[in-house]
Amino acid sequence: MLLELVALTLAGVHFGVPLAYYFYLKRAYLNKPWNIEVDEDYRPRVTVIVPTYNEARFIQKKLDNIYGQDYPRSLVEVIVVDSASDDGTAELVEEWASEHRDVNLRLIREDKRRGKAHALNHALR
Fold first, then answer.
1. What is the three-class DSSP state of 58?
2. Confidence band (pLDDT; 50, 70, 90) for 110?
3. Domain containing 114: what range?
4. Mean pLDDT of 102-121
5. Within a 13 Å sphere around the CA of 90, how many CA atoms are in the beta-carbon half?
6. Which residues pair with 46 in a beta bridge?
7. What does 71-88 look like in DSSP terms, one character per residue?
8. Is 41 domain-assigned?
């Protein structure tokens, strides 16, 4: 009997104190206005980094997917980092860029393959 009473008391304290604290904070702070103004028309600039290595089969479709996004093209920058592809990936990117002049596309060619992480870091510089 005493053990049950102690267990119930500890359970009540364990669950009751956090619940009481939650309801106190909710009543004291969450009902107050925060006076935050949000501009619904704001659109940030977006940079899409595409690291490539021998992606000639896929790169034009990937660039078409990026091009087809419902976002203002003036706010989108596409950086393609080619890690010394030998299948013509960079040439296909240049061809695609010449057909889509309204896209801010930058092609970075690396002289040797150093991996995806290096390509991403190179683009972020």
1. coil
2. very high
3. 46-124
4. 91
5. 13
6. 76
7. S-GGGEEEEEEEES-SSS
8. no
